[in-house]
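Support reply, case 0932

Customer input (verbatim):
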Amino acid sequence: MGFGNVMMAGSIVNSSTKIGNYCIVNTGASVDHDCTIEDYVHISPRVAVAGNVKVMEGAHLGIGACVKQNITIGKWSIVGAGAVVVDDVPDYTVVVGNPAKPIKTVTVV
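Our regenerated output:
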């Protein structure tokens, strides 16, 4: 675990998960085994991240989202509230729905 992170009440991070710097794992979120959470990631309340998931720099997982195992969430991407992620999310992409589908790209300044 890096520095400047916030782990809110009821959040769970399981074994062999690496967390970068300045991340938020919000209330009741669950991050399973062998995940990599890069810098500046926000994992919202009640998000479920399965094993061996990579969440790249600056990504935001919206409230109640679910991410299946062996997925990569691209840098500065946004996963919408309640989305069910079953495929990799490209960098700078917003995905929503069940299953999660891209709706637009994000411009980061």
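We compared this against your earlier run and they match. Two observations from our side: The chain has no helices and 16 strands. The mean pLDDT is 97. Please reopen the case if you see a mismatch on your end.
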